Every structure is written in C-alpha cells, then in structure tokens.
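Postdoc handover notes: sequence design on the structure in folder B. Input tokens:
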C-alpha cells in the first residue's frame, strides 16, 4: 500500500507541545533501550511488531489510550530509523495525524524535556 503522505518529522519541542495539547506519545524503544537510557513520563509503550494488536480499534488488546483514527499520535524511538517505520505503519492502518520525533529519545532528552533517568543512573 502506498501512502499519500509521509509521517512528519518534528522537533522534540514541537512533539512535546503536541503531547501537552493532548497527542498520544508512543515509545517504541525496546525494554533494554528504555532501561539503559530512561523513559518519557506518560508515554505508552508499544511493540513495533504488534501494531495491529496494539492500535487496531477493534483489537481486544489495543492500548486503552487509542481512541480514534484521527487522534494525534507522536512516535518516539531511539532514532528516526525506528520511529519512521512505525509512524508509516500507523498511517497505513488509517491513522491520519501521526508524527515522529527528530533525534528520537536522545533528541528529546537533549532538548531538556522531561525524562525519567534509568534506575542504574539513580542513586
């Protein structure tokens, strides 16, 4: 299936503003990635290989936070190489307002946005 539009790549500051305005923040990093580098409070953790199960509106295992195809969604990963394909996958599944974060989680953190440090970094 070809897409009529590509998911927009937005700065971490624009992404955070979208989330503050009600967009759903979806973190598709691995458990190891989150454990090594930290989390973004409030992000829904999703498996990039389970988009139908986790985002299908009629799926019994979808995230409760997923409510409609026009809901704004911000995807973050360790880099755009991870978030881009997920954002494209959501568009292919009918979501119409999907963006992903330039620089991924490292960019989010470097922009001074709220993160929870990994347990290994907390003392």
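Designed sequence:
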């Amino acid at each position: 299936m070809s897409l009529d539009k590509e998911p927009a790549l937005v700065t971490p500051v624009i992404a955070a503003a979208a989330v503050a305005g009600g967009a759903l923040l979806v973190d598709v990093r691995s458990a190891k990635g989150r454990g090594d580098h930290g989390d973004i409070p409030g992000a829904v953790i999703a498996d990039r290989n389970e988009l139908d199960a986790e985002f299908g509106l009629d799926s019994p295992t979808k995230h409760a936070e997923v409510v409609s195809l026009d809901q704004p969604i911000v995807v973050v990963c360790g880099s755009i190489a991870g978030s881009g394909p997920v954002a494209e996958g959501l568009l292919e599944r009918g979501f119409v307002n999907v963006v992903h974060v330039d620089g991924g989680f490292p960019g989010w953190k470097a922009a001074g946005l709220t993160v929870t440090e990994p347990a290994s970094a907390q003392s």
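Context for whoever picks this up: The chain is about 35% helix and 15% strand. Don't rerun without checking with the PI first.
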